[in-house]
């Protein structure tokens, strides 16, 4: 364990894409590889990550003993065996950070020693390029300093907001799944370019850069999206004709329904573990 005034030792339990992205971001943010650990069930994957990042792979009991912060980054369906392994060895003072979609802090608090502080996080895949949007929520034993530790850790890979845990299923639907909606839209727009006779490679450049530029305008101007859209929409012009078709086809309503469906599935994932 580290001293109180030092940065904590962090162990990532489950070094899949999100787990690897977090480790990479922490290294780029100035953390020492000596202060990071990970667990991974596949030996080839373990060797590859150690070679790439210089971070030690270990087992769950050793990670629980050596780390101040345990970041749980396994798939929700793999959480039960991990908690079975973790429960006998984790110290009640160790901060547990869950990146598992849909799983409530109460699951960890019920299965781990009494008083373990738990912080629930909903990140998203832009963590892979240092542009994650992560929402964090404290469990009943997590104190302000625990939230500050998690914010400091996740700031290495993107932006962080605090939300009540009751909003986490909605956050999962909005930003957790959100990148997929944008990818879906970009895919459809590229197909439209091809339909209109533009080569795929050119259509990809046109649409991807338009997406990057539009996102940058939202960030840098701070304007409401309606204002920015109206600035492109001339009277009786091409854009308003396209907007009319989007409205005629119920695109706005479809997005609302899609995000509600994602929220409902997140709730189901959590409910599946309530009985355990």
How would you characterize the overall build of this protein?
- There is one protein chain.
- By secondary structure, the protein is of the alpha/beta class.
- It has 2 domains: 10-168, Rossmann fold (3-Layer(aba) Sandwich); 178-269, ProC C-terminal domain-like fold.
- Helices cover 53% and strands 13% of the residues.
- The chain contains 12 helices and 8 strands.
- It has helices at residues 17-28, 43-53, 60-66, 79-86, 105-111, 144-154, 168-176, 178-195, 200-221, 225-232, 238-248, 251-271; strands spanning 10-13, 36-39, 56-57, 69-72, 95-98, 118-122, 132-138, 158-162.
- Strands 3-2-1-4-5-6-7-8 form an 8-stranded mixed β-sheet, with helices on both faces.
- Helix 4 links the parallel strand 4 and strand 5.
- Helix 7 (168-176) packs across helix 12 and helix 8 crosses helix 9.
- The longest helix has 22 residues, at 200-221.
- The mean pLDDT is 94.
- Catalyzes the reduction of 1-pyrroline-5-carboxylate (PCA) to L-proline.
- One of its GO terms (cellular component) is cytoplasm.
- Pathway: Amino-acid biosynthesis; L-proline biosynthesis; L-proline from L-glutamate 5-semialdehyde: step 1/1.
- This is Pyrroline-5-carboxylate reductase.
- It catalyses: L-proline + NAD(+) = (S)-1-pyrroline-5-carboxylate + NADH + 2 H(+); L-proline + NADP(+) = (S)-1-pyrroline-5-carboxylate + NADPH + 2 H(+).
């Amino acid at each position: 364990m580290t001293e109180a005034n030092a940065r904590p030792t962090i162990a990532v339990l489950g070094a899949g894409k999100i787990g690897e992205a977090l480790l990479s971001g922490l290294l780029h943010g100035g953390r020492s590889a000596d202060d990071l650990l990970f667990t991974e069930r596949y030996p080839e994957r373990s060797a590859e990550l150690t070679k790439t990042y210089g971070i030690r792979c270990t087992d769950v009991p050793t990670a629980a003993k050596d780390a101040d912060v345990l970041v749980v980054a396994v798939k929700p369906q793999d959480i039960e065996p991990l908690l079975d392994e973790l429960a006998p060895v984790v110290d009640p003072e160790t901060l547990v950070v869950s990146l598992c979609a849909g799983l409530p802090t109460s699951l960890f608090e019920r299965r781990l020693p009494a008083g373990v502080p738990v912080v629930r996080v909903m990140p998203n895949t832009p963590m892979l390029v240092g542009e994650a949007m992560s929402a964090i929520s404290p469990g009943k034993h997590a104190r302000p300093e625990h939230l500050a530790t998690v914010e400091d850790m996740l700031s290495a890979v993107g932006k962080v907001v605090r939300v009540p845990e009751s909003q986490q299923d909605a956050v999962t639907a909005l930003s957790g799944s959100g990148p997929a909606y944008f990818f879906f839209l970009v895919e459809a727009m590229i197909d439209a370019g091809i339909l209109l006779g533009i080569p795929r490679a050119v259509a990809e450049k046109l649409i991807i850069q338009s997406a990057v530029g539009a996102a940058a305008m939202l960030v840098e101007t701070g304007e409401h999206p309606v204002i920015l859209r109206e600035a492109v929409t001339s009277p009786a012009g091409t854009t308003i004709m396209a907007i009319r078709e989007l409205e005629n086809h119920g695109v706005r309503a479809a997005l609302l329904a899609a995000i509600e469906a994602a929220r409902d599935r997140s709730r189901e994932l959590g409910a599946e573990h309530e009985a355990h």
